[in-house]
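Handout, page 2. Input:
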Amino acid sequence: MKNFKKYLILSLLALVVLGTFSYLWRKSRPVEIRYESLEAVVGDIARTAVVTGKIVPRNEVNIKPQISGIISELYKEAGQQVAEGEVIAKVKVIPEMSSLSSAQSRVRLAELNLNQARTDYNREKNLYDKQLVSAEEYEKISQALEQAKEEYAAAQEALEVIRDGVSKRNASSSSTLIRSTISGLILDIPVKVGNTVTLSNTFNDGTTIATVANMNDLIFDGNVDETEVGRLSEGMPVVIRIGALQNLKFDAFLEYISPKATSSGGANQFEIKAAVQVPEDVKIRSGYSANAEIEMERVEHVLTIPESAVEFKEDSAYVYVGGPKEYVRKSIRTGLSDGVNIEVQSGLKAGDKVRGNQILETEEP
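Output:
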């Protein structure tokens, strides 16, 4: 039994020694490093700028009331089409007490003046019929009566407008009826029945009853960095990709570049706008996030290699030519890059093999 334990311990020690020796031997062996072999080929390279922004309608209008009051009825909902002049809502007027009192006072005064003018006219007419006054005097009294009637009618109309928001004479164009000023899609109705609304004036922007836009005329609105804006010009083609619409892209053209920069996070940005061409069978919602791809530069039929194969040092560029095990460092002159491939202007020819990324490490047999 004792001999068995002794042999077992010796065996384990031997295994440990052999394992350690094997491990150290493997670690001391030389390692071969292999690289991906890349070929210089002729192709096209385009440098593209990607601008983030959103899709918005060109014409988006906030519909606001011409009077202050309370929403009594809503005739439309967001998402519905509306024609120019179509009624969206109705406002019940809550008159200002001082204005209402002044209008009522004006009506009473106009009524007194009208009654007096009638009395004067009747008296003057009796005298004129008896040929006791001249025709000129009679005409003056008649004119005064007509003026009194007009003043009374105007006072009544002013009272109706202040009290009801509409008069009998202009009922068809009542300011209590909120009408759309353009034809388009209702994007939003931020008010509800019972909400108080105010008209727009010098001190108040007024309450928005509805937002209406023409969704058949859309633009991309984004911002480009000042380092890129100098290469842009109006009319350049743009490709629009919308995140919410996978695998779809839309053609557009650049139509506006802001002449003034805005600061964002310490960087100067310039607003750009591009007209988007949307097929009739595609539905786009206002405010979609989108990317605009603008081709800044392009070279065609030039020698190219993957940019990952180029070693940049100071103002020079190098590649390693040869393979598969031995490579020679060689200087090249580069041109345009698209971020993946780069133009080689000199130093290589089509078909040359250059060293790429390390792909495998193996031990020599």
